[in-house]
Amino acid sequence: MKIICVGRNYGAHIEELQNERPEHPILFLKPDTAIVLKKQPFFIPDFSNDIHHEVEILVKINKIGKYIDKKFAPTYYEEIGLGIDFTARDLQAQLKEKGLPWEKAKAFDGAAVVGNFLPKSTFESVDDINFSLKKNGETVQKGNTRLMLWKIDALIEYISKYFTLKIGDIIFTGTPAGVAKVNPNDKLTGYIEETEVFSIKVK
């Protein structure tokens, strides 16, 4: 399986990092080794002093597809989840300054939390899902999928032009505003609507 991530998909997040609004979805990959194992903490790596949390709605692909038309995209997933794209912001800034790829800052071991998935049928519309992240009991990020620049089905259409989607692949659909540094002993808890779908400690 592979993890396909979408960058800069929420306007407020683009503004908070003073980034340029993209003409097309920004894509990058994480390997399966980036996933934090169930019931394990997130360990801050020794190569960064500024790891940020980025909470994101996840989509799990349920059949193989290539060049998927947007109108058929809903048939390629049945589950919606939530996760964290951990980002070494200091390392990312260095790489961006030199025009280099982001992978060292985004795809390192443990850089992805994948929470529990909920049936798509849980929601009236995948384009109107509330989600949030609490840090030590305080809400630090909240968003709704209607605020995406590119909605889920449009992302599947775009991504499948470049990457064949396979069963079990996970799409990270982008983060809303509120990204911030994590510190040892932080507790991060993710919610889709009112349902807790992950909780992880930072070490």
Description:
The protein is α+β, with helices and mostly antiparallel strands. The protein has a single domain (3-201), classed as Alpha-Beta Complex (Fumarylacetoacetate hydrolase, domain 2). Helix content is 15%, strand content 33%. It has four helices and 14 strands. It has helices spanning 11-16, 89-97, 103-106, 152-162; strands at residues 3-7, 26-30, 51-53, 55-61, 77-85, 87-88, 112-114, 118-119, 130-135, 138-144, 170-172, 180-181, 187-192, 195-201. Strands 1, 2, 4, 5, 7, 8 and 11 form a seven-stranded mixed beta sheet that branches. Strand 9 (130-135) and strand 10 (138-144) form a beta hairpin. The longest helix is centred in the C-terminal third of the chain and has 11 residues, at 152-162. The protein is globular. The two termini are 27 Å apart. The mean pLDDT is 95.
SSE inventory with pairings:
Elements: E1 3-7, H1 11-16, E2 26-30, E3 51-53, E4 55-61, E5 77-85, E6 87-88, H2 89-97, H3 103-106, E7 112-114, E8 118-119, E9 130-135, E10 138-144, H4 152-162, E11 170-172, E12 180-181, E13 187-192, E14 195-201
Parallel strand pairs: 1-11
Antiparallel strand pairs: 1-2, 3-6, 3-12, 4-5, 4-11, 5-7, 5-8, 9-10, 9-13, 13-14
